[in-house]
Amino acid sequence: MRALPDQITISEVSKRSGVAASALRYYETLGLINAERTEGNQRRYPRAILRRVAVIQVAQGLGLSLTEIAAALAALPAGRGPTPADWERMADAWRAGLEARIASLTKLRDSLSSCIGCGCLSLETCALFNREDRAAVRGAGARYLMGDRPEG
Questions:
Q1: What are the tens digits of pLDDT across the range 96-126?
Q2: What is the rounded distance in angstroms from the CA atom of residue 52 to the CA atom of residue 82?
Q3: What whole-number distance in Å separates Cα of residue 81 and Cα of residue 53?
């Protein structure tokens, strides 16, 4: 592949990153990335934007929301990609939330496999059954799968 100039077009960013141009424009509206404009109002990105877009892709792959990603990227200078030290700070900031998600997903996986695997289909003990919507007073979501216990 040819070497990139210091300023690259949105189509080049899209081609190199694998992210659709429409997604790049959306990232720009959220402040995740920034472009300069030419006299003809065309976007030009610094070459370092490719690393920033890669960080966004990795973070999304980890299940982080664009809001969480934006908060982490807001601490970085817009004109460069994250350094290893920057990445370590972002990883530290995301670690607790990721650990909580992992624990939640593990619990959900274990609950579903035991429920589906046992074949009991018992409405008395099934964590999916919420008779008369009693769990609604505890909040939104599948309360019994989240750890709440049905009242006896």
A1: 888 988 898 888 777 766 655 555 555 555 6
A2: 7
A3: 9
